[in-house]
Design brief:
The protein has helices at about 150-170, 200-210; strands at about 30-35, 50, 65-75, 90-105, 110, 115-130, 135-140, 145, 175-180, 185-190, 225-235, 240-250, 255-265, 270, 280-295, 305-320, 325-340. The protein is mostly beta strands.
Length: about 350
C-alpha cells in the first residue's frame, strides 16, 4: 500500500490524414483515395493510391473492475453469509505503518539492502448507512509521517514512499459508496472541479483500499472457508491484475479474523512517468507485488482494525531518455505492514 509503482500509462496514439490525402466522397477509415493522370483512351490506365489511415478514439476503461469472485472452499458447518453491517458512529481512524528494506540491481549485481525509515499513512472514516445495506462513506486523508529521527538523506528516501499520498490524498476529504460485501465505488473528492475530476487521486484511494480491505463472498461460509477475488486496477496508473485469496480463521458477532494472500501482476506496457525529461519513452517490463498475513475485521468498519502483512514489491522498467540512451531499472522492496485503528 505504501510502496507503489509510481508510473502513468501513456499508450495513446493519435493520427490524422496528412494534408492532401483522400478527402473526397466515399473516403473514410481504412479507405484510399485515387487519382488518374490523363492517358490515351485506348491505353492502359494508371492509378496512384494514397492511403487514408485514421485511428479510432481510445476506449475509456473504467477501473477498478472486479473480474470475478469465487468460493474456493465453503468451510466447516455451521455456515452463514459474511456481510458488513454499517453503523452511524463517531469517525474512526485507520493507519498503516510500513517498514521497508530496498535494493537495486546495478551492472548485474544487487546493491546491499538499505533500510528505509518507517512511514505511516492512513484514513479517517465515517459511514452513513442506507436501507439497501450499502453506506455512504465519508473519508479524509490523515497526515502522513516518518517514524523516528532519521538523517536528512534517510528522511528524503522515506519521503519518496509517501510522495503520492501526500500529493494526492493527505488533508483531502471525499466520499464513496461501499456495499454490504465491502466493494467500493463512486470515489469522489469534495474539492474536485466538475470539469477536472481528480482521476489519479481516485485511483490512489481505490488501489490502497483494494490492498487492505476485505471483499466478502456471496455464498454462506464457515471456519476454514476461503474465497478468491480477481480485480483489474490502476496502481500508480499502471494497469495491474490483483488476485486475492481470503480464508476465514475465526468469527464472533463483532469480529472476523481473516488470512490474506494477495498478488498484483503488472505486465509489459508503455508508461508515462511524471517529471521525466520531455520525449522520454518508458516501458514497464514487469511488476510483482505480494502481501501475506492476517487481519482482524469489524463488520461496522470498512477497513481492518488491526493486522500484520509481509510485503514484497519488484519492478523492472526501461527508460529511453533523449540523448542518453536506454536506462534499465530493477528494484526490490521487502518489508512489513502493520495496521492499527482508533
Amino acid at each position: 500500500m505504501i510502496a507503489v509503482l509510481v508510473v502513468g500509462v501513456g499508450c495513446g496514439s493519435g493520427g490524422s490524414p496528412s494534408a492532401g490525402s483522400g478527402g473526397g466522397a466515399g473516403s473514410g477509415p481504412g479507405t484510399a483515395s485515387a487519382s488518374a493522370p490523363e492517358t490515351d483512351a485506348g491505353g492502359p490506365q494508371l492509378k496512384m493510391i494514397t492511403p487514408d489511415i485514421r485511428t479510432l478514439p481510445e476506449p475509456v476503461i473504467e477501473l477498478p473492475k472486479e473480474e470475478s469472485t469465487r468460493l474456493l472452499a465453503p468451510g466447516a458447518e455451521p455456515r452463514a453469509p459474511l456481510r458488513y453491517a454499517w453503523q452511524a458512529q463517531h469517525p474512526r481512524e485507520v493507519t498503516v505503518e510500513a517498514r521497508i528494506k530496498s535494493r537495486r540491481l546495478d551492472a548485474g549485481a544487487w546493491s546491499p539492502q538499505a533500510e528505509v525509515p518507517a512511514v505511516r499513512e492512513g484514513f479517517g472514516f465515517d459511514a452513513a448507512p442506507a436501507a439497501d445495506g450499502s453506506a455512504t462513506l465519508a473519508f479524509r486523508g490523515l497526515v502522513s509521517s516518518i517514524v523516528g529521527d532519521p538523517t536528512d538523506a534517510d528522511r528524503a528516501r522515506a519521503g519518496e514512499y509517501l510522495a503520492q499520498f501526500r500529493q494526492l490524498i493527505e488533508h483531502r476529504r471525499g466520499t464513496a459508496i461501499v456495499d454490504a460485501r465491502g466493494r467500493l465505488t463512486n470515489v469522489r473528492f469534495s474539492d474536485e472541479s466538475p470539469t477536472a475530476p481528480s482521476m489519479t487521486a481516485r485511483d490512489e484511494v481505490a488501489q490502497r483500499w483494494l490492498a487492505v480491505a476485505v471483499p466478502l463472498p456471496d455464498e454462506p461460509i464457515g471456519l476454514g472457508g476461503s474465497w478468491r477475488v480477481v480485480t483489474v486496477l490502476r496502481a500508480g496508473a499502471a494497469v495491474v491484475k490483483q488476485t486475492a485469496d481470503y480464508t476465514l480463521v475465526a468469527r464472533t458477532a463483532d469480529r472476523w479474523t481473516i488470512d490474506v494472500a494477495l498478488r498484483r501482476i503488472g505486465e509489459e506496457q508503455l508508461v508515462d512517468v511524471p517529471g521525466m525529461p520531455r520525449g522520454t519513452v518508458a516501458e514497464l517490463v514487469a511488476m510483482f507485488r505480494e502481501l501475506k498475513g492476517r487481519v482482524v475485521v469489524e463488520p461496522s468498519l470498512p477497513w481492518p482494525v488491526s493486522g500484520a502483512l509481509s510485503s514484497e514489491l519488484r519492478v523492472h522498467a526501461k527508460f529511453g531518455v533523449p540523448n542518453q540512451g536506454v536506462v534499465e531499472d530493477i528494484t526490490e522492496d521487502i518489508g512489513a505492514l502493520t495496521l492499527t485503528s482508533k
